[in-house]
Amino acid sequence: MISFSDFIIFLNVFIATIFASNAYIPDASLSVPKIIKRHGYPSETHIVDTKDGYLLEVHRIPHGKNSKQYRKFPVFLQHGVVASSADWIINGPSKALAYQLADNGFDVWLGNSRGNTYSRSHKSLSPDSEEFWNFSFHEMGIYDLPATIDYILERTNQSQLYYIGHSMGSCMFFVMCSMRPEYNYKIRAQISLAPVAYVHHMTSFLNTLVPYANEIQKASNWVSKGAFLPQNAASKLVNKYLCGDNAVNSMLCKKYIVYKMFGEDTVQFDMTLLPIILGHNPAGTSVKTLIHFAQEITTKNFQQFDFGIEKNLDVYNCSHPPKYNLSNIIVPIAFYYAKNDILADPTDVVELYSHLPNRLGLHLIKFDKFNHVDFLYSKNVTDMVYQSVMNTIFKAEFVGWIPEFDNATAFNALSDYNKCNDDRNARTTNNGFWHKITSIIKKKEVYPLTSIMKEDKEKNVRLRNTYVMAWNQTYFE
């Protein structure tokens, strides 16, 4: 909590500096396409429409500044919660991942999830309506990502791409591949930076808001129709005058904005970037997205949105929401995580990793103070993270690449992801009519991954090797 004395200091500094800072920092006020062009890179803007009508703005760096060398597969970068495509370029040409990938010959695409600064449009809904903001990371996973991936593959005439997600950008991916497993085969390899799905060990001060989630939702619906932290003139004013170059301002921003939310790192976090970061963040999302994460903290599960018993029965035919089936995610995946990440806690990251069948490696950053946003803004992020990420992608560029999966951590399949033992309603019981009907339907459908749920470890290994061979022969030729 902020003490009274800290609040007085905070208020005095704000009043004293609101008229004092006149420094202009271009990257803090320009749009992402303009920033990319300002640094001498080619820039394109594309509009992707989703199946449910949202219009997403996607930014593209088709090649490097001084080279038009093209590698085979494009790279899709997806930002985290209340963020935008700006996250991938804020660190500048010498450090930001988007620029480094482009300079290494990759066609780079920067996604923007529904509701953020660049994706506040819909074919028929106004962002001033509650209906527009009725979404969470679930809809981002089943609608936004598939639409963007299909668009990229169509424009580049490729069958696969690399996916790199930070924080919620990884969460959206897990939702997509568990709910729409056909998209596994459109991803060459996936890189998760500070992956988020299980969050019950999170120690960020955001965790203190969980008990008040419903009240926050009601207040937000009344004030902003369900929008959460949208970027507007007021937020830009506060960011500009409260977190400028002034030393006292920087101290306050570090203490109350960065360290309390993401983890304290006085060494690697580049404070000179703070005005630029706050010029683009928060970029906004829906309150429902935050409520969904709050539910994950409370239940300790990675599951679909909980609407309450009555609506759950209508939506899921069960009184509680089903868990996401992580065993459906057969994409080769590499994890990068940090000890001092108080949002993506190492315990939660390792738990998530153990539920994924095809793992390329679990990489712990070799610096104990590395935090959640250091994956984007660290002074030495290239040496600590990005070089390893690019080496993983470089290996996958070979035509005959066969993933070398990590067997050091035991695979822990979730066997109860879709079970519903609810005696309140016959539709949801194992002896009920609904269960019998759905069981017949499921027998007619093809589930290539159901056998991996079996507990026979030796058989699982054989099955997994079969999947690898089939993957290589069918999709990596």
TrEMBL record:
SUPFAM superfamilies according to UniProt: alpha/beta-Hydrolases (SSF53474)
Any Gene Ontology biological process: lipid catabolic process
Domain Serine aminopeptidase S33: 95-225
Origin: domain of life: Eukaryota
Protein name per UniProt: Lipase
Keyword Cell inner membrane: no
GO MF annotations in UniProt: hydrolase activity
Family, as annotated: Belongs to the AB hydrolase superfamily. Lipase family.
Domain Partial AB-hydrolase lipase: 32-92
Entry keyword Transport: no
Transmembrane segments: 7-25
UniProtKB keywords: Glycoprotein, Hydrolase, Lipid degradation, Lipid metabolism, Membrane, Signal, Transmembrane, Transmembrane helix
UniProt-listed InterPro entries: AB_hydrolase_fold, AB_hydrolase_lipase, Hydrolase_4
